[in-house]
Amino acid sequence: MKNWLQKVIVAEEFTHNPTAWHFSPDIDTGGFVFFSGITGTRADETIASDAELQFREAFRFLRAYLVQAALDVGDIVEITSYHMDLRRHLNAFIKVKDEFVLEPYPAWTAAGVAELISHGALVEIRAIAKRS
Predict the structure, then answer these.
(1) 71-116 pLDDT per residue, tens
(2) Do 11 and 71 form a contact (C-beta atoms < 8 A)?
(3) Predicted model pTM
(4) What is the DSSP string of 18-83?
(5) Beta strand pairing status for 76-83 and 107-112?
(6) Domains held by the chain: number
């Protein structure tokens, strides 16, 4: 039995995800909010072929989840990003990440992977945010 409060948070444009995929996009434990992997896949399941646009949309979707949780990017304490063809797209990813994530920077781990759940996705971003 859990001894902590757990609340599922879903960004408005992605309310279909928990039902379709059987997962919680965000779990609010009261002190921390854990964000499941977020790609640049839009609500209509399309995805940009341009890497930089795809990364920008992934961060925009992360921001939408943060807003729904009454948080902002400054509350993020850790980011883990999983990349298709990591070295090829790393500079573009860092450029976009730096548009969204400002100092003081959260911890960040980037890992190259062979496959992501969304067809055509180049990155999947997980994050943990702390409530003040």
Answers:
(1) 999 999 999 999 999 999 999 999 999 999 999 999 999 999 999 9
(2) no
(3) 0.85
(4) HHHH-S-SEEE-SSEEEEEEE-S--TTS---SSHHHHHHHHHHHHHHHHHHTT--GGGEEEEEEEE
(5) parallel
(6) 1
Contact assessment for residue 32 and residue 7, using Cβ atoms and an 8 Å cutoff? no
CATH for 46: 3.30.1330.40
The answer to whether the beta carbons of residues 39 and 91 sit under 8 Å apart is no
Domain residue limits at 103: 7-130
> Is the C-alpha dihedral spanning 87, 102, 109, 21 positive or negative?
negative
